[in-house]
Amino acid sequence: MFNRTRKLLPRGTAIVITLGVLLLTYQIVLAYYLLGGKWSGFPQYYIRSVSGSPGSYISIIDSAVGSWNATPTKARLYLTSPNQESIQITAAYYGSPANCNGSMIVWSGCAYMYPNPYDGIYTYGTIKINRTVIEAYIYSGIKTQGVVAHEIGHILGLGHVSGQALMYSTDQRYDWWYIYTPQADDINGVNARYP
User: Fold this and answer.
1) Of 60, 66, 71, 73, which residue is the least packed, with the fewest Cβ within 10 Å?
2) Does 30 reside within a domain?
3) Domain holding 178: CATH number?
4) How does pLDDT run across 146-156, given as a tens digit for each residue?
5) Is the dihedral of CA 104, 36, 155, 141 positive or negative?
6) Is residue 144 part of a domain?
7) What is the span of the domain harbouring residue 164?
8) For the chain, how many structural domains are there in total?
9) pLDDT digits (tens, 9 = 90+) for 106-147
10) 3-class secondary structure per residue, 34-103
């Protein structure tokens, strides 16, 4: 009769293998963050204004709007003429650092909803695209589109999240994950806000 002995992996090796399997199957779970306020309904109308030579900024803004309009949400934004808009999108040279909602910081985009972004019904919104930062840091057109789409997310009532979503708090969402359009978490947030 043969004496069979089992060779077990050393305890440390088993732990490392288990952790490796867990990390390979790990998925980032996001939870959208809602600011608190919302629009009373859709569609919303926007106007775009670009200082200096508008060049590609007009098409970048329209592409960012189109990325939201293509989502399975009630969010729809349409171009209108001045004095009829509920959202104004402006690309201009604001400086760096510059005032964004009361804070002097370096920013590529800044959004604000009136009368209060954190409560009640929004009646008007502004998005500022800071050409000073975008051009100094040589943003590509697609990265700039991501900035505009991110700010539209704020206008729709979404706050920042800390994962792979359009509403990630810095422009690194493009550099790290190539995100420049609404992702599932962003869409889920808008659908929760506007069922």
Assistant:
1) 66
2) no
3) 3.40.390.10
4) 999 999 999 99
5) positive
6) yes
7) 38-193
8) 1
9) 999 999 999 999 999 999 999 999 999 999 999 999 999 999
10) ECCCEECCCCEEEEEEECCCCCCHHHHHHHHHHHHHCCCCCCCEEECCCCCCCEEEEEECCCCCEEECCE
